[in-house]
Amino acid sequence: MPDSTKPLTYAEAGVDISRGNRLVDRIKPLARASRRPGADAELGGFGGLFDLKAAGFIDPILVAANDGVGTKLKIAIECGIYDTIGVDLVAMCVNDIVVQGAEPLFFLDYFAAGKLDEDVATAVVKGIAEGCSQSGCALIGGETAEMPGLYASGDFDLAGFAVGAAERGNLLPKPGLKPGDAVLGLPSSGLHSNGFSLVRRVVERAGLAWDAPAPFDPSQSLGTALLTPTRLYVKPLLHVLSTTRGVLALAHITGGGYTDNLPRVLGSDIAVSLDLGAFAPPPVMFWLAATGNIAEEEMLRTYNCGFGMAVFVDAPREDEVRTALALAGLSPTLIGRLFARDNRSVVTRGRLPF
């Protein structure tokens, strides 16, 4: 029989505080590398600090976003590839902030596991710090939770929280969207971080292992190819927003695809006509559609189909904005036009080239 008089400890219950402290020491240099004006404090305090005045803001409006990476995380765990999922986590948050016309300022992460693996957590945070650096956003803190019995062995969960700011009057969307205005698509890096529950069902149907060559890119394993990180649009878009006046709105093409995300920036009297013939989906999309026998409508509502960001442009300034986006490395494609709405907010013409 167990000894009911034996003193119990937190470590014996499955939570090792010393292990958590060691992890903080390991990730401090990663967070330090993401510093920016306004964020100079070290990790380890009770809260992260940010100085808006030091960052150069005069009359800012704060913009906040939080997100996760969905079941893409499950693929990362099963593949044992941990150093890119953190980039996804940052991207899903900061891409949402830039569509408001705001500059991401700082980021916090939440990492929870049944038993903390220092190497795994460090690799994840390394990706988070990399995503922050690429988007000019400081990693100023977070939370690591060890919760025995809540997660299966080897599993962990991940969430991110970002805050940005824009000067009053510079927020998007701007008023004035009207029939004839252009919708430009900015190429994605692939699936980004949406629709992975369906991806996993397709992989199961195909009977493929994660370490098998990717059918759509035999030069790398299926797992590695599917874990290609979400593209970060922040820095080039901020540059374009600061140098042109023709961008009226932005839409991040995430969960819900085009059907749900484009209407979020439109008034009740405006709709989008999408030219599906202008789309050039990456090979992974072709493979998913064919292997899963996924209908076009389902693809458009689940995946970005090649464009991770939509830019709504004032028609008279279309050439100016297209040139600025191209010079910023964003390779814009005209994918649609706005028109006076009747009963649907998004209509399509042509077919996806699947």
Question: What structural keywords apply?
Answer:
354 residues; alpha+beta; six-stranded mixed beta sheet; four-stranded mixed beta sheet; 11 helices; 32% helix
Report on the structure:
The structure is a single chain. This protein is of the alpha+beta class and 354 residues long. The model has no long low-confidence stretch (mean pLDDT 93). The protein contains eleven helices and twelve strands. The protein is globular, with a radius of gyration of 22 Å. The protein has a six-stranded mixed β-sheet. The chain has a four-stranded mixed β-sheet with strand order 1-4-2-3. α4 links the parallel β2 and β3. It has helices spanning 17-32, 72-79, 85-98, 118-135, 196-206, 222-226, 234-243, 257-261, 283-291, 296-302, 318-327; strands spanning 60-67, 103-113, 138-146, 156-167, 182-187, 213-214, 217-221, 247-252, 270-275, 307-313, 333-340, 346-349.
**N-to-C terminal Cα separation, in Å?**
65 Å
In quaternary terms, these chains amount to: single chain
Overall average residue pLDDT: 93
Strand order of the largest sheet: 8-10-5-11-9-12
SSE string: HEHHEHEEEHEEHHEHEHHEHEE
Outline, from the CA principal axes?
globular
Briefly summarize what is shown.
The protein is an alpha+beta fold and 354 residues long. It contains eleven helices and twelve strands.
